[in-house]
Amino acid sequence: MYICVCNGVTEREIRSSIEAGARSLDDLQRELGVASGCGQCKQEAKCLLREVRRECLFASTLQAA
Ligand code: FES
């Protein structure tokens, strides 16, 4: 599913970028161009950042247990 229509960026690409180390909207803008056009995708990209980082934190907690 496209999150950023202006730049043709999909949810999968954003998730991959976050899993590879993107930590902020600025990182996603630099790497993928997200939110560098109309800005309609900004909130969704921020939600994905929070969601994926929470999943990663949870996964690392499980591995440590
Ligand atoms: S939809 Fe992402 S900048 Fe327009």
Produce a short descriptive summary:
This protein is mainly alpha-helical. Helix content is 62%, strand content 8%. The chain has a single domain, classed as BFD-like [2Fe-2S]-binding domain (Arc Repressor Mutant, subunit A, Orthogonal Bundle).
Describe this protein's structure.
- This protein has 65 residues and is mainly α.
- The protein has a single domain, classed as BFD-like [2Fe-2S]-binding domain (Arc Repressor Mutant, subunit A), CATH 1.10.10.
- The chain has three helices and two strands.
- It has a two-stranded antiparallel sheet with strand order 1-2.
- α1 crosses α3.
- The structure holds FE2/S2 (inorganic) cluster.
- FE2/S2 (inorganic) cluster (FES) binds next to loops.
Shape: elongated
Order of helices and strands: EEHHH
Radius of gyration, in angstroms, nearest whole number: 12 Å
CATH level-four homologous superfamily name = BFD-like [2Fe-2S]-binding domain
Overall structural class, as computed from helix and strand content, comes to mainly alpha
Please tally the β strands and state the result: 2
The oligomerization state is: single chain
| Count of helical regions | 3
The count of domains is 1
Largest sheet: 2 strands, antiparallel
CATH architecture descriptor: Orthogonal Bundle
Q: Ions, cofactors, ligands: which are bound?
A: FE2/S2 (inorganic) cluster
Q: Could you please say which CATH topology applies here?
A: Arc Repressor Mutant, subunit A
Beta fraction of the residues? 5-15%
CA-CA gap between termini: 34 Å
